[in-house]
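sry for the spam today, last one i promise. struct tokens for design, 457 residues
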């Protein structure tokens, strides 16, 4: 049972529930939706709508578990702290480093994507210049503090929602013939038209629907800033409901405007859906939306990985100097490691063959879903869930298992699955080796001693 009283690790804030909802939208709508949804459509056809509904249900169950733990006992370490409470020191250590490693790898691909989008307007500028510029801008946003980060994410969330709503309005008007061009809707009229791909195609595409909701774990880290932590569940319900509605409406319109096999993995589905209309501003509009979406999710991820690193250090699961406070909003050593990780990830994404790096980032994305599974397992262990709550969490685990196992079915995503297992084995082996140190005495003191020896050497 969690303690109802406030702990020392608890942060105080003045954030309102709707601000957290808006922050969640800002750090969730990204390239995973604007581009990843095209992959899901090519693998499943119009049935992609069912996949997004299933992913929304699974996402809601995960956030419900995280929000209830936050309301009961707000902790800066969020999901890793709850994993530690539920399963022991090894779980908190492993989940923290799995999250940090996965997000650092994913950010390299985000920066590369942002650079490619920017070359749409400036084709002669090298990718590395754009990547460096976006990385510096992201670090600046991180340094201005949580208050301003929340405001920036809220502003960018409004812009992203406006872009999607604009597509919904334009698409609806186009279907009624207001812009000329082809107006015949590709509405599926039979079961076979709605399910044009085999069941295995649907199964393998579920992971991409989940990717569109990636980012809710960052809301758990930000939830400690709520003025009333008990409002965390409400903020999540509103956020996920809003996301689900606009996702289903926009993708539903896209798949009835043009045949589903017209979509490809190189263009946003919304640009493809409007290709039959003479609207020259559309590519520019959605290129802007892609850049805004990619940057906001990257900035939120920077906040997440830095917060987790500082929390790992405070718990003795990383060298103590990473949590040593200075004049900046975040400890300089933590900022330094995050910056070094960003640089390494940028270099890897630009130098490695596209297929190899895609495998790595796919594996890193899967590692985030492993964290989601741990959130559900932690809630089952340390909350007093009702029978209905326990059923929801088990359904959430089943949906995550389906999404993860679906990656084994295709040769494109199978290497990513095995790479994710490789990372888990490496981090788990380190945790297993350190477990003997933790058992010698007080967990925190023993790991502190270990890292102090490492720092001296």
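last one done:
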């Amino acid at each position: 049972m969690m303690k109802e009283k406030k702990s020392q690790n608890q942060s105080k804030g003045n954030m309102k529930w709707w601000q957290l909802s808006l922050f969640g939208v800002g750090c969730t709508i990204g390239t995973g939706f604007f581009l990843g949804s095209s992959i899901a459509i090519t693998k499943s056809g119009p049935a992609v709508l069912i996949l997004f509904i299933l992913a929304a249900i699974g996402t809601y169950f995960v956030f419900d578990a995280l929000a209830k733990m936050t309301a009961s006992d707000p902790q800066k370490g969020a999901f890793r702290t709850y994993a530690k409470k539920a399963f022991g020191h090894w779980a908190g250590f492993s989940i923290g480093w799995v999250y940090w490693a996965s997000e650092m790898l994913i950010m390299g691909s985000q920066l590369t994507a942002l650079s490619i989008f920017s070359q749409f307007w400036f084709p002669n500028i090298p990718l590395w210049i754009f990547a460096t510029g976006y990385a510096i801008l992201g670090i600046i946003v991180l340094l201005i503090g949580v208050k301003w980060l929340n405001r920036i994410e809220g502003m960018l969330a409004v812009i992203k929602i406006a872009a999607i709503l604009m597509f919904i309005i334009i698409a609806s008007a186009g279907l009624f013939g207001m812009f000329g061009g082809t107006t015949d809707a590709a509405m599926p009229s039979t079961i076979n038209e709605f399910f044009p791909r085999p069941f295995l195609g649907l199964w393998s595409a579920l992971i991409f629907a989940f990717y569109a909701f990636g980012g809710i774990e960052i809301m758990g880290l930000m939830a400690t800033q709520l003025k009333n932590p008990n409002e965390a569940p409400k903020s999540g319900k509103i956020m996920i409901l809003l996301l689900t509605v606009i996702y289903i409406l926009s993708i539903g319109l896209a798949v009835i405007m043009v045949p589903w096999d017209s979509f490809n993995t190189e263009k946003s589905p919304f640009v493809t859906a409007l290709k039959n209309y003479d609207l020259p501003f559309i590519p520019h509009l959605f290129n802007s939306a892609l850049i805004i979406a990619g940057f906001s999710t990257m900035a939120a991820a920077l906040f997440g990985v830095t917060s987790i690193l500082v929390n790992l250090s405070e718990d003795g699961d990383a060298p103590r100097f990473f949590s040593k406070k200075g004049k900046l909003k975040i400890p300089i050593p933590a900022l330094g490691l995050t910056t070094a990780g960003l640089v390494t990830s940028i270099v890897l994404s630009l130098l490695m063959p596209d297929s190899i790096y895609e495998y790595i980032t796919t594996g890193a994305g899967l590692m985030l879903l492993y964290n989601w599974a741990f959130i559900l397992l932690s809630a089952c262990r340390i909350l007093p869930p009702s029978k209905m709550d326990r059923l929801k969490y088990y359904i959430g685990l089943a949906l995550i298992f389906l999404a993860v196992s679906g990656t084994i079915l295709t040769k494109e995503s199978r290497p990513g699955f095995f790479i994710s297992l490789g990372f888990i084995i490496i981090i788990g082996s380190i945790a297993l080796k350190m477990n003997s140190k933790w058992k010698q005495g007080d967990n925190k003191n023993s790991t502190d001693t270990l890292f102090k020896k490492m720092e001296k050497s």
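Confidence is low (pLDDT under 50) at residues 1-11. ok im logging off now
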